Every structure is written in structure tokens, then in C-alpha cells.
Amino acid sequence: MAGAVEAKLAELGLTLPDVVPPLASYQPAVRSGLYVYTSGQLPMVDGQLAVTGKVGAEVTADEAKELAKTCALNALAAVKSVAGDLDRIARVVKVVGFVASAADFTGQPGVVNGASELLGAVLGDKGVHARSAVGVAVLPLDAPVEVEVQVELVDA
Q1: Which helix (H) or strand (E) covers residue 4, if one does?
Q2: Which of 33, 71, 106, 131 is a Cys-bridge partner for 95, taking CB atoms 3.0 to 4.6 Å apart?
Q3: Does position 108 have pLDDT exceeding 80, yes or no?
Q4: Can you tell me the distance from the alpha carbon of 67 to that of 73, in angstroms, rounded to the nearest whole number?
């Protein structure tokens, strides 16, 4: 049975995906006390990257913003895999977004807004968070964007 957070996703026309399997030696998410830390989530859909390349070259900033939204959905799936229920999220504490950027691209914050705006739309005030948006030379599988999320859970 879906809780309030998953109902909000459905209201937004979104579905929580399956957890993306690890590409190497790590777990998609780890819980420590009341905190869940996700590994970096790529914009995988059905096991595939729809788009590859650098933002500001092969990928537009608007495309990358949508991909960051997909990363955030994948992060929520990873959180649920260790928390059991997304309604246990007390708040999103921190989001870190990595943007594979062309040398002259400086719009990383706007790209990572895709993840931040999704979390706000789904979680309301609980989705407001601290954040970093970092430009990098390359990401795994030539992904344009990668997002990691830290959440605090309610004590249960």
C-alpha cells in the first residue's frame, strides 16, 4: 500500500522506480541511525541512460535538469529500500549534484534544481535542503548528471 509520499508522486504523474542496481562495489543506500545516505544516482530508466554526454555540449541545460529529476526519483527509491516507507522521511538534509560539464558551462545550479524542485514538490517543507552543485569533467557511463541525497527519518 502506497503512503502519502507515493500518492503525491502519483498525483504528479510520477512512479517510484525500482532501485537502480549498483554499478560497482557499493550499496544504493545505507542507513545509519536516523539518517539515510544514498550513493550517487544516475538518470537511469529501465536500466539504461537515455542521454549521455556533457551539459553545455551534447546535452542542453533543460535536458539535464529533467535528468536530475530522474536522479532524485532514483534516490527516493534507494531511500525507500532501506527506510521501508517514504513517509518516514522527516526531512531532506542535503543534496549533492554533479554535472558533467563542457568547459564553458556554468549553469550547474540550474541543472541540479531539477532534483531540488522534485523533492520540494513531493515532500513540501520536508524537501527543503542544503545543497551543492558541482561541475565535473566526466561521470560514470558518460552520464550528464549524478545526484546523491541525505535524509533524516522520523524515529520509529
Answers
A1: helix 4-11
A2: 131
A3: yes
A4: 10
**Global pTM value:** 0.96
Phi-psi region of 86 (alpha: psi -120 to 50; beta: other; left: phi over 0): alpha
Crossing angle of helices 61-83/108-123, nearest 10°? 40
Of the chain, the percentage scoring pLDDT greater than 70 comes to 98
Q: What is the mean pLDDT of the chain?
A: 96
pLDDT of residue 1: 54
Contact 100, 54 (CB under 8 A): yes
CB 37, CB 95: distance < 8 Å: no
40-56: average pLDDT: 95
Signed CA dihedral, 98, 103, 108, 112: sign only: negative
Q: At a CB cut-off of 8 Å and minimum separation 6, what does 37 contact? A: 29, 30, 148, 150
Give the whole-angstrom CA distance, residue 100 versus residue 135: 6
